[in-house]
Structure formats: structure tokens, C-alpha cells
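>> received
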Amino acid sequence: MTPVLSMRGVRKSFSGVAVLKGVDFALERGEVHALLGGNGAGKSTLMKILEGVYTLDEGTIEIDGEPVALSTPQDARRHGIAMIFQEFSLIPTLTVAQNIYLTRERRAAGLLDDAADVKRAAALLADIGVDIDPRRPVRRLSTAGWQLVEIAKALSQDARILIMDEPTASLAHSEVDALFRIIERLKQQGMTIVYITHRLEEVMAVADRVTVLRDGERVGTQPTSELDMDALIALIVGRAVERGAAEPGRSIDRSGTPLLSVRGLNVGDRVRDVDLDLHAGEVLGLAGLMGSGRSELARAIFGIDKATSGTIAVRGEDVRIRRPADAIANGIVLVPEDRRTQGLVLAHSVRDNLTLTMLRRLSRHGLLDEGALQGVTESEVDRLHIKTGSLRAPVRRLSGGNQQKVVLSKWLATKPDVLILDEPTAGVDIATKTEIAGLVRELAAAGKGVIVISSELAELLAMADRVLVLRDGAVERTLDRSELGSEPELHRLVQAPAGVA
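>> returned
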């Protein structure tokens, strides 16, 4: 059969740096095809060429065996190609129907016909099995609801090829299952889906075939039925990688004064009467469903959200944290959940972002010491293995994993005692996940206290010495390393109704 899409010999360079080096990529009708690779492998660039955001330097693109030129996103839409980016493109104040048909509204007597758009949006949502009121403002939907509206918006443009970039990055476990059911339904209707993710367990669950890119080249395309997880990881990384192995026999001395102690912390109804202790050399995991209060607790400790009551002590001394500067002064830092909007200044260079927290230390008589700036930046890039073509390149050009390393490095430069890492491996590849897990263990071994918030329970099992399970803003239970057991068991405890162990 003729592939629904064929890309051959695709090459693309930016500022003389080759990003894609003669890549071949093909899609069959009605398949879910996972596009995988490490951060910076070229996945996003290849898909942005298919979406018409970038133009290729060399190569050809065929749809149903016919050559096409995809110079703009409008060209891609005309050929039935739609992409759902990791960052949502919806307008919160508009309704579901208005977002789906934005710029393509029905009109009657020269006026917008909202009723007609609501009717066809309802039919479209019903066709893919989604129960969402098309008259509801998008801002009132869950993250999963936003994702489903993005899918409906793409389908409303008569898409035949749907590109999904990290579609589950912000979804809870139950919402991921619901998304998979939608994907299966679309597949049965003949839709072809390109699925980009770093969550490899999802690949094995949902994809028919995988194509792996490494350093801008295609290293293989195989049916998932012929791969197991270890073989898939080896294909991506280029070598065998040990997965999720917890440190054996870590012993934490909890007899002394905690490094960080929180008592009776409340932030409205989002954080309710939380107590926690973090000891030197300890990695404390925070688990819970979306909305359980994990990030809100972190933001309160760091001084972003104002606590309504409660106390925070560092090394036994009560401290008053009214803003992030107070937390930093007391040796507490936060690597936020959303690195792009909360952790980086995207328009600024890699160097500027890396040294943002060190400007006072790197100044002489009120002027920045350029030599010192350059030296510190080169040292940090080398220490965390940050891949960048230039230290002066905008940080937005880095892959997700390398952006995360910049955020980590920026805060490590302050020499903190307590690090709070909120979803530290979201959207990064397996090799970078392994590096970050190793870094967390190194920090704990050096006597730091680390709080890790993660939706990936395997990650908590691999790193944490204790896990606090939160529900509705309160600590539901505390589990020691010896009680953690397996990932399915931890998942059961996180999902269990309040009061049920």
C-alpha cells in the first residue's frame, strides 16, 4: 500500500548546525506511529516541517504518493495535517465551540451564528466520544478537557494526520487512559496519529510502530510488537540503560534536628494543615493526583503563595518566608513545574539564564565581570552536560532536557540546603532522566535535603527515601522506603479513596 505520508532525505540546518541529516519517515493509514528520540534528536524539527512551520533544506514530502510543498501551516491544513503542540493554543475566555471553530465561524446575515457552531461542535465531540458541553468556557475545563478540545479543533479542520506532541505531560493517570480510548477510536475511523513522548510505557501501550531519531538521523523503525522496554531504550540512547533502580540500603539519620520542618501549614483550602520534616541527606517524595496540593505546598514553602497559617523552620530556627527572596536567603530553592514560563527567560541567552542567580557575585564595582560570567557558564555547561551550539543562543532553542538542566544549574549555583523539584523530568528523555536522578542522589549524599514532586510513581520509587501522599491539600499517609513496594502498589495507594489504605 502507498503510505499516507512519505518524507525522504529531509535535511535541515540552523545557523550552520545540522539538525536533520537525511531523515526518512513514513506513515501508514490508520496507525499510531510513535516518534521517539532523546532531547535534541530532531523530532520537533521534523514535525514542524510537516506542519509547515519550518521549510526543509533538502528532501521530498509525498502525501498519498503525490509530491507536496508544505511552506506554511495553511498548506499543511489543506493537506489534512494538524498538530497539537505541548503548549495549548486555546483562548480560556471563549467557549469550547468558539475555540474549535475560531476564524472559521458560521455566519448568518453577516453575524456570527453561535448556535450553529455549538450544534456542529456537539456533533463533532459526540463522534469522538467526548462528553463536554460546547457552550462551556474553556477556562472551566480540566487539563484533560483542554487536550480533548485541542483534538476536536484539529479534527474540525478535516485532519487525516494528527501530530500529538507530549499529549499526556499534564494529565493524571485516569485522564491518560481516557485519552488512549479516544486515540483508539480515531484510529478505527482511519485517522493516522504521530505520537511524540518521552513516556515509553505509553509507547508500548498505544503505538503500532516506532521510529527513533538520534542526533538528527533515523536509527530505526520497528513494530512495537517486536520490542520490549529495554530494547526500546537501547535504540533511543544507543546503549543499555539501567532503569528505575533504587539505591539499595540508604540509611537516613533522622535523630537530629530536621533540615526543614513545616508545621500546620495552610494556604486557603489548597493546602490544609500540612506537617513535614526533611532531614539532611534525605530525598522526600510528594505523590498525589492532580489538584492534590503538591505544587501549592511547594509554592508556599518557597514564598510564591502566601500561607494563611503555620510555621516553617530551617535547622530548628523559625523563618519567615513572605517571598522567594526570603526562601533563597534561607537556603531553599524551587525548580518549578513549568520551566518555560516559570523557570526561564526564553528570549535571553543560555549564559544569561545560567548566571541569573549569580549576578551580584559576578559583579565588580557595579559592573558585570564578563570573564567570570563566561568561565562560570562554561563550567556549568560542562558539569551538567548541557548541549548547546552557543552560550549566547536563546535558551528557547534548547531541547526540553537541556532547558531543564539550565534551570537546575541556575539554582544549584546559589548553593542551597533544600531543593524542591516539581516534576523535574517532565518532557525529558530517558538518558536525561537518568542523569537527573543521579544528580538528586549526589545532592542527598552531599547532605542536601531534596523534595521531589512527580506524577511518575516509578521515579519516586527510584529516588525517594520517604513518600508523602497528598489528597485535597492534606497529607493522607506517609510511607517509608521499606513500605513503598512496587509501582502498582504505590499507584493503588495514591488512587485509593480517603481513609482507605
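>> The domain at 260-495 is CATH 3.40.50.300 (Rossmann fold).
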